[in-house]
Amino acid sequence: MTTALPSSKKSSRRVIPGFHFTLYFTLIYLLLIVLVPLGGLFVKTASLSWSQFWEVVLSARVLASFRVTFGSALVASLINIVFGLITAWVLVRYHFWGKRIVDAFIDLPFALPTAVAGITLTSLLAPNGWVGQYLAPLGIKAAYSQLGIVLALTFIGLPFVVRSVQPVLEALSKDTEEAAESLGASRGQVFFRVILPEILPAVLTGFTLAFARTVGEYGSVIFISGNMPMQTEIIPLLIVSKLEQYDYSGATAIASVMLVVSFVLLLLSNFLQARAARKLGAA
Amino acid sequence: MPKKTALLTVFLASSALAAGTTLLNVSYDPTRELYQDINAAFAKKWKAQTGQDLTLNQSHGGSGAQARSVIDGLEADVVTLALSYDIDSIADKAKLLPENWQSRLAYNSSPYTSTIVFLVRKGNPKNIKDWDDLTKNGVQVITPNPKTSGGARWNFLGAWGYALKKYKTEAKAKDFVQKIYKNVPVLDSGARGSTTTFVERGIGDVLIAWENEALLATKQLGEGKFEIVAPSLSILAEPPVTWVDKNVEKHGTQKLAKAYLEFLYSAEGQEIAAKNYYRPRSKTVAAKYDAQFPRVKLFTLQSVFGNWRDTQKKYFNDGGVFDQIYQK
């Protein structure tokens, strides 16, 4: 019994000192970096009574902007599922000149300050911009509308889907596809019944990460949205405008709703992934 | 214990001496160019008087955000913000300066003023002359969001004050201002953002702007592409300045901070303000630059609205008049 599986023997040498040390380190690190700051948010919110809290969170303007924010983030993340998947597919399955450069481009939305992205997109899509000037005569209002928000969020969310799906596609062996084809499966069947189930957990991860990230996006959206109350105001803007009147607890009330939603989403994603993985294992 | 205290005193005194020649001016967005000029001139003057070299640092951002930074611990020696409400908040929330700070320097602690005017495209195609024209159908108005921009609050109050004077009742003034905001397609979060939307993106027929921003836009951004239209009546915008008592005590910069702010009132300081398109308080300097500023009848915030604390609460806080305009 000399298998080198890491979980098999206690005696196997560990690179980093012991389980207890690393676990405590992880917990303390999480506590300091994540939980304490976020806990502060809830403590600040707690200075409101429940009725005050609901009054802030359920006011017409806040509800309208929840709709705008979550709606736009949802649409943008769905767009990214489709096009992120295609992008990842191309990068994994084909070889072409300049592939490394294209691959590097994917991460640009990660690296670029989001305000720069917002200003650039706005100047492109404004009625006098390169793209906007052709859209305006068609009656399409790209900048300063919800469409603009969706476009900005699509830009911001793209790398999440591509980078989640890419490694799974790479690991996927071609054998099963070829087997399916030799058994007479159509291309559609191969995709939906062979490939998709394999990459579905990764797609879900990408989707959730993109969604959670874009819900809180401020920099890129603020320039392109037009910020019209009840129409194109995003939640982070309302938080800023609460702060502007020194209403810290009101701002944290809205922020804590965002936090809870994001956390629930991430939990849900983990759950779906686990389930999808189990199904695959069973099959 | 006495030894410790003595050591501490020496340490504090030496650090005060070392820091005594450094000043941090926390200001708002459009004053960047103004304070670059002021700092250069003041450092030169101070050097001539005392032989000391000064380090003058400036920080810019949205007025409210800057005030929050100071409240949260940014050690500003002097603050030069867009609204006295923001400095009031520093006094109220962080107790860094006395509540009556505004009476410490001349003219309500506002060494220079500005007002709200209109910027239109060349030739004034929509023939905009006064506030009434902003309520017309088919006129697109660009102004930032009063919830996030100090400058935008002056815009709002300028329109309100005009309407109140002309139509007498508050209800009619509200109606009037509501009509203007119906014509607003984009509410940027700050004054510079609105200028960009109007000038660079080509959106809107008229920009409601600080006079100094409008002059800057006509002189520097697009010579000959824009025109300034002065309304018949507008608000006197008084951006206030003061030193932050707790911080200057800590830094040993009381004298320096005071001298710096008083320099703003001197003939030289007033001249620099005028060159940066701010209206000087000094009558002689004002006379010299008279041709530069459009003629507008002005009313003060005090005369129509009272103080900033009440104005902020009534008009711009959540559920206030501005929210009602958008929520009916």
TrEMBL record, chain B:
<dbReference type="InterPro" id="IPR034408">
    <property type="entry name" value="Sulphate/thiosulphate_BS"/>
</dbReference>
<dbReference type="InterPro" id="IPR000957">
    <property type="entry name" value="Sulphate/thiosulphate-bd_CS"/>
</dbReference>
<keyword id="KW-0732">Signal</keyword>
<protein>
    <recommendedName>
        <fullName>Sulfate-binding protein</fullName>
    </recommendedName>
</protein>
<keyword id="KW-0813">Transport</keyword>
<comment type="function">
    <text>This protein specifically binds sulfate and is involved in its transmembrane transport.</text>
</comment>
<dbReference type="InterPro" id="IPR005669">
    <property type="entry name" value="Thiosulph/SO4-bd"/>
</dbReference>
<feature type="signal peptide">
    <location>
        <begin position="1"/>
        <end position="18"/>
    </location>
</feature>
<comment type="similarity">
    <text>Belongs to the prokaryotic sulfate-binding protein family.</text>
</comment>
<dbReference type="Pfam" id="PF13531">
    <property type="entry name" value="SBP_bac_11"/>
</dbReference>
<keyword id="KW-0764">Sulfate transport</keyword>
<keyword id="KW-0574">Periplasm</keyword>
